Amino acid sequence: MITLTISSASKPPSFARGLPLSLECAEDSTVADVKALITARFPKFHVSRQRLNLKGERGSLNDEKTIGEVFGADAKVRELQVKDLGPQISWRTVFLVEYAGPLVIHPLIYHLPRLWYGQDVQHSALQKYVYAFVLLHFVKRELETIFVHRFSHGTMPLLNIFKNSAHYHLLSGLALAYDVYRPKFSATSPYIVNTIRNDQNFLRLCAGLWAFAELSNLHTHLTLRALRPANTRTRGIPFGYGFTYLSSPNYFFETVAWVVICVMTGSVAAWVFTVVAAVQMALWALKKHKNYKREFGKAYPRGRRAILPFIL
């Protein structure tokens, strides 16, 4: 058994005034085990609220690391600092709430046009296609959240759910639905009548491209799931469809799907949402690409880009 000192990285929360404290644990105990011991001393200090790091260092410790790996055999001082991350909520819950917004908002605006526009709207084929695309996209995202995705981090700060949800509820929900289902895009509008936006061949081509992008996105998510055993943070190098050229082909295919809707409609709201989403996904992809290269070194394929083949 070894003795660990646990101090506070900042002002300790009211329910953990007993910090610093000493804990007895085995050398093969994990960081997750140490968090559980802290919770045993302070029951309100749930493990999801804790971030442990070496004293004087900012990087958080991986829950799966053992104390022996953290300090080494010759360490004379074994001290960890704990930081309270505040109230947490599971990532799975956050995703479900985010994607539920458009699934509620789009039907309300599509089926109740008089409430929003003060008149009935005879929906065009274009509007019907977009309505189906949006609902299918977010139903797919909900099902993936429940059955496919495995999260490396179990929780996030509770307040972030409002920021994250605003992106989907306001941009791809309220703004997109209000813009695309309005009379301008209706079956009798000059913007639609006798234009390519009312051409069935054009709409079917767009539907085919959209379905290709969505199914490709699903395929990459299934590939990533297969790399990570349940209840672990194990990471591996993904190969196969989409990953030959990109570290994050899932983001690339999702962007393609939304660009299809933008081209179909010419909607300003659709373009705003797509650009904002694409920029955010590009930032995530670049960060993931950098992490892959740092973690796997020379084993990681050199020719890959982050999100755009041969470019970015």
Structure description:
It comes from Hypsizygus marmoreus. This is 3-oxo-5-alpha-steroid 4-dehydrogenase C-terminal domain-containing protein. Belongs to the steroid 5-alpha reductase family. The protein is an alpha+beta fold. The chain is 51% helix and 9% strand. It has helices at residues 31-41, 67-71, 91-111, 113-117, 125-147, 160-180, 200-227, 249-265, 268-296; strands at 2-8, 21-25, 50-54, 79-84, 88-90, 155-157. Strands 2-1-4-3 form a 4-stranded mixed sheet, with helices on one face. Strands 5-6 form a two-stranded antiparallel sheet. Helix 3 (91-111) packs antiparallel against helix 5 and helix 3 runs parallel beside helix 6. The N and C termini lie far apart (50 Å).
For the terminal residues, how far apart are their CA atoms?
50 Å
- As residue ranges, the low-confidence spans are none
Percentage of residues in strands: 5-15%
Based on the structure, what is the oligomeric state of the protein chains?
single chain
Question: Which class of secondary structure composition applies to the elements?
Answer: alpha+beta
The backbone outline, from C-alpha atoms, is elongated
Q: Return Rg in Å.
A: 24 Å
Number of domains: 2
Level of helix content? 40-55%
**What sequence of helices (H) and strands (E) makes up the elements?**
EEHEHEEHHHEHHHH
